[in-house]
C-alpha cells in the first residue's frame, strides 16, 4: 500500500526558510512523479511544484519560482521542498502527491484527484 508522509512544517518569520520532506513507502518510488500542493484556509488546493520520476525535470508555480526548490532522493524514497524567502501568502497546509501511473509527470494544471496523497504538514509564516 502506497504511503506518503510529510514532515518539516512549522512556524517561520517572513523571509525565513523551511524544508519539507515527503517520505514514501509501499511502492517503487523511483518510477513515479511526485509533487507538492498546498491549500490555505478558504482557498482551493493549488499546485506548488513537481518533479519527474528521475529528478531531471521540475515544474513550479509562478508564485514560488526562484524561491522554492523541489528535489528527490530515489535511493531513500524521499522528496524535498526547500522553501526560501517565505512570504505570509505561502502559509498553508502542504501536501505531497504521487501519480498512480508510472513515469507519468505531474504538470501544472493536471488532474490529480486520483493521486496518492499524504496527510499534509502545516506551514505558518508570520509577518
Q: Main beta sheet, described?
A: 7 strands, mixed
Regions with pLDDT < 50 over 5+ consecutive residues? none
* Beta-strand segment tally: 11
Output the radius of gyration.
13 Å
Q: What share of the residues lie within helices?
A: under 10%
Mean pLDDT: 96
Secondary-structure element pattern, one letter each? EEEEEEEEEEE
Structural class: mainly beta
Q: Beta-strand percentage?
A: over 45%
Question: What layout of secondary structure does this protein have?
Answer:
Blueprint (H helix, E strand, L loop, with lengths): L2 E5 L2 E4 L4 E8 L8 E6 L6 E6 L6 E3 L7 E6 L4 E6 L8 E7 L17 E2 L3 E6 L1
Parallel strand pairs: 2-11
Antiparallel strand pairs: 1-3, 3-8, 4-5, 4-9, 5-6, 7-8, 9-10, 9-11
Write up what this structure looks like:
- This protein is mainly β.
- It is built from no helices and eleven strands.
- It has strands at 3-7, 10-13, 18-25, 34-39, 46-51, 58-60, 68-73, 78-83, 92-98, 116-117, 121-126.
- Strands 2, 4, 5, 6, 9, 10 and 11 form a seven-stranded mixed sheet that branches. A four-stranded antiparallel sheet has the order 1-3-8-7, with no helix packed on it.
- A hairpin with a 6-residue loop joins strand 4 (34-39) and strand 5.
- The radius of gyration is 13 Å and the shape is globular.
- The model has no long low-confidence stretch (mean pLDDT 96).
Amino acid at each position: 500500500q502506497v504511503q506518503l508522509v510529510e514532515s518539516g512544517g512549522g512556524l517561520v518569520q517572513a523571509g525565513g526558510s523551511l524544508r519539507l520532506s515527503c517520505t514514501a513507502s509501499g511502492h517503487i518510488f523511483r518510477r513515479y512523479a511526485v509533487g507538492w500542493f498546498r491549500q490555505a484556509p478558504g482557498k482551493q488546493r493549488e499546485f506548488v511544484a513537481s518533479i519527474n520520476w528521475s529528478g531531471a525535470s521540475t515544474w513550479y508555480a509562478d508564485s514560488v519560482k526562484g524561491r522554492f526548490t523541489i528535489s528527490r532522493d530515489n535511493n531513500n524514497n524521499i522528496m524535498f521542498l526547500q522553501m526560501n524567502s517565505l512570504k505570509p501568502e505561502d502559509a498553508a497546509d502542504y501536501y505531497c502527491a504521487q501519480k498512480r501511473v508510472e513515469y507519468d509527470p505531474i504538470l501544472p494544471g493536471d488532474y490529480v484527484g486520483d493521486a496518492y496523497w499524504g496527510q499534509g504538514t502545516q506551514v505558518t509564516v508570520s509577518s
